Input
Amino acid sequence: MSQVSLAKDRIKFLLLEGVHESAVEILKQRGYHSIEYITTALDEAELCDKVRDAHFIGIRSRTQLTEKVFAAAEKLIGVGCFCIGTNQVDLVAARNHGVVVFNAPFSNTRSVAELVLAEIIMLLRRIPEKNAAAHRGEWYKTATGSFEARGKVLGIVGYGHIGSQLSILAEQLGMQVRFYDVESKLPLGNASSVASLDALLQQSDVVTLHVPETAQTQWMIDAPQLTKMKPGALLVNASRGTVVVIDALAEALRSGHLAGAAIDVFPVEPSSNKEVFESPLRELDNCILTPHVGGSTQEAQENIGVEVAGKLAHYSDNGSTLSAVNFPEVSLPTHHGARRLLHIHQNRPGMLTRINQLLAEQNINVSGQYLQTDADVGYVVIDIDTPADSDIADTLLDAMRAIEGTIRARVLY
Ligand SMILES: NC(=O)C1=CN([C@@H]2O[C@H](COP(=O)(O)OP(=O)(O)OC[C@H]3O[C@@H](n4cnc5c(N)ncnc54)[C@H](O)[C@@H]3O)[C@@H](O)[C@H]2O)C=CC1
Ligand SMILES: O=C(O)C(=O)COP(=O)(O)O
Output
């Protein structure tokens, strides 16, 4: 057997932020036992040190994977985001270093939708203030400012997996659902789309945000947008902390223009449970504050562990990049009796020709070849008919690595 294909027990996984143990179980079931498990996030300097000998890293929303981290991670071939958001990863840097990034696009969406629905009911009934008062020994029994959810207009910004599930749940309560999305989306049930964010803000009794962190969504809700909301309206943000300008929100809550808010995500979040949480919203009783737990349920975390660990193991075992968020997607059959080589390269003319020339020169029969490219990167998987004890794959690998524009090449089996 060739020496270049790494044995599974030498493939190292670094799992951070206490990802669910289902991830560890799946990796072990798939034959990966070299797993370092850390319950917290690491800062950039600690990460640069830790990632040096890791082949895979698993993170959640706190760990920032920067260009500097990827440059230090010489052996890294894959990242698993055990969450939905991938804004914490420099996806372009990852791709340029030949590192494939996966996430779990659905597994915690129901959990977020349920939490938001519960918060809407709590806010409509002014429970946060009444709860805070009761904790101080005050008895604040009044119907003033308390409303049923039935008949109220719920404005959803971002009608994706979470927004659309919330739409269905809110309609069960009799809410009238309207949404604004930059993409054309099928309205579910009796929901209807609204042409602009401003129009949605003006019409809604409750506004809830379910957009990803992008340049367009950054500080999307600032003082001018809050002013457009109905007097006495409510705001919920369980998307990303950069979507809402917190000082502007605090002012809108203090002035009484908004009656309440529920905020799960913040521009700066503590990096561990031991750090103090600072926010101007802390002093406001009419604001539900939660520590980024929208997706933190046992069900969601267990499913995410299984899903993302499965994707990492599949990529490691077979080279498949199906559902990668930063990489050309190649879905591959397992090819028994063949050797499989992977070549990740800058997408420039003639790369495949050069690889195929090498194969022809060595008189190697190709039994399968799979290529996908995006604007910058090409990924080709080559199955060759050669006995397992031949060292031709090693020779080929050296030659492929010498091709100018190669980012990474390896023999899988
Ligand atoms: N609080 C928590 O624990 C969690 C937070 N999240 C956050 O929620 C976000 C949304 O999750 P999903 O619904 O699963 O994502 P998704 O990708 O299914 O939906 C996002 C929707 O937002 C729309 N959109 C993008 N830019 C927009 C803009 N500028 N204006 C209006 N609409 C825009 C998209 O077209 C898409 O329909 C995630 O990106 C993540 O940041 C996700 C899970 C847990
Ligand atoms: O799935 C997401 O995007 C989330 O925000 C959840 O993040 P977490 O895994 O709880 O740190």
Remarks:
- The chain has three domains: 1-103+297-327, 109-289, 330-412.
- Residues 180 and 197 are 6 Å apart (CA to CA).
- The mean pLDDT is 95.
- Residues 298-318 form the longest helix (21 residues).
